Amino acid sequence: MMNFKDFWTKKILVGLGLGQFLSLLITSTGFASSELARKGINAPTSQSFLNYVLLAIFYGSYMLYRRQSLKAKWYYYLILGVVDVEANFLVVKAYQYTSLTSVMLLDCWSIPSVMVLTWLFLKTKYRFKKITGVVVCVAGLVLVVFSDVHAGDRTDGSNPRLGDALVIAGATLYAISNVSEEYLVKNADRIELMSFLGIFGAIISAIQISILERNELKSIHWTAGASLPFFGFALAMFLFYSFVPILLKISGSTMLNLSLLTSDMWAVVIRIFAYHEKVDWMYFIAFAAVAIGLIIYSGGDKEGDQHCRDVVNEEAERSNKYFDEEDSSANCRAIAGSSGTSRDIGEK
Question: How many angstroms separate the first and last alpha carbons of the chain?
Answer without folding.
Answer: 79
